[in-house]
Amino acid sequence: MAKAQRSEHGEWSSGLMFVLAATGSAVGLGNLWRFPYQVAQNGGAAFVFIYLLCIMLVGLPIIVAEITLGRRGKQSPINSLRSIAMAEGVSRYWTLLGWLGVASGVLILSFYSVVGGWTLYYTAQAFTGAFQGMGVEAASEMFGGLTASPWAVVLWHTLFMLLLFGIVVVGVRDGIQRTVTLLMPMLLVILVLLVGYGMAASGSFNEAALFLFQPDYTAVTPDTFLTALGQAFFTLSLGLGAIMVYGAYLPQNESIPNSAAWIVGMDTATALLAGLAIFPIVFAAGMDAGSGGPGLVFKTLPIVFGEIPFGVILAILFYILLAAAAITSGVSLLEPATAYLTEKGGSRLVGAGSVALVIWLLGIPAALSQNIWSDLKLPGGQGIFGTMEFVSTTIMLPLGGLLIALFSGWFMRSASLAKELGVNPGNTLYLLWLFAVRFIAPLGVILIFLNSLGVFGG
Ligand code: TRP
Question: What domains are there in the chain, each with its CATH number?
């Protein structure tokens, strides 16, 4: 089968645009909402170091693998894996890995969109100055009021999905690329401004830095590793084909290793900067970072914004940042399944529309599990929302990543990989990468899985 020159969905106009889009996918609620509260709940710096280790040893090799598979296949993950498996003469069952990815993406976006809806609501509230002088109680009432109202959460979830649909339906270049070109530079500027504020004005910057960088290993349990690994996959958008499909749109002459290094570097920097933006103001207000859990940026921060100088403006900036990051990530969760349906012969309108509809429907139970269905516990002891989050991010993503590493490392010819990466098969860095996808990344995932099952007596 002749290899297509470009994807039928179009291409990014440059390697930089790919880096922006993929960084847009990576930098999201995972960095600004999930990472800070996970750090706070898992013992601060000890968690940060384990997380960084997972990023370097497992995340980096796998992101290179995903981009490589995508650009080689130039289609949706399902069809890319099918055509690569055929070209390499291995089992066509590898296509199932593409399906696993589509399923994970649909599941993740359905609860991600609920939180995305919260970010839109809080952005609207910030503009009205609603946080001014707000105490602990009023803040929990605001968050409680939103999540306790089935209509409100579903309404904001609907708006968020409509927004994503509106972007994805327009196409790779006119929709996604345009959005990231607009939002990503803005996002960086806002984040740097907020860190600058934390440094200059909060008086608690050192405390925050110590919290992030001075480890307390007594808080580490087997679950810390699993959580850190899940977070590494989640934050880099790995394991389900989102980066793979973006890689399918990467022009042939652009360097994959360079792009990957930029994406990982920017994503990691953003997570740490988010910590340095959020913790100083939380500590300065004398609040506890860990107690709020997932409520950190929705319950704790509004109180802080209500108290500090320039709080109105800082709040507006912060929630725009959060919403923008959620939008550029959300589109990458919608794209793999959309691309697949479009390849089946549908229009982008039908493709994006049907995927968005399914995700919207699945998001409704996630939204309702925080109010009218809050008593419902699924096997495993968590509610619908928590179960969706746990199963998709902590189990399906690492599993998808493991299979991606095994497929590229063991089932593809080294010559095909080196060719797509544009390197000589004897190149030292290339050999290091191959070693990492063959051994380090798979073993890392497997050991962490076994560890969390208590196999090592944890
Ligand atoms: N990485 C995003 C975040 O940190 C979320 C995300 C977008 C994602 N696309 C993904 C997670 C694909 C896993 C897979 O918020």
Answer: 15-400 (1.10.4160)
